[in-house]
Amino acid sequence: IRAQGPAPEITLPSLTTSATAIPQQQVELFGIDEKVNVWRREELMKDQTISGPALITEIVATTFIDKGWRCVVDSLGNLLLSHQPIH
């Protein structure tokens, strides 16, 4: 038996670029000489950039962005990480 039908239209909500989120707190992490900013993922906006070291928290996960790395939030809320050379 094989069933086939039209593909459903899926639309994902896009983030806005209104107010840029700010860190909620700073914490000390073992092995890092400076305090680390902590961001709430649900408050991040489209095109927001966060340079490491930083933490992004949410209910089911925590993302650590190490020194020399950068995170850009895309229009769907994905965290796009890229390595930046340390000078």
Mean of all residue-level pLDDT scores: 89
**SS element count, helices:** 0
Report strand %. 25-35%
- Percent helix among the residues? under 10%
Coarse morphology: elongated
Q: How far apart are the termini?
A: 61 Å
Number of strands: 7
What structural class do you assign from the helix and strand content? mainly beta
Q: What does the largest sheet look like?
A: 4 strands, mixed
Strands of the widest sheet, in order across it, are 1-2-4-5
> If you compute it from the alpha carbons, what radius of gyration comes out, rounded to the nearest whole angstrom?
17 Å
**H/E topology pattern:** EEEEEEE
Q: Extract low-pLDDT stretches.
A: none
Description of the structure:
There is one protein chain. The protein contains no helices and seven strands. It is mainly β. It has a four-stranded mixed sheet, with no helix packed on it. It has a three-stranded antiparallel sheet with strand order 3-6-7, with no helix packed on it.
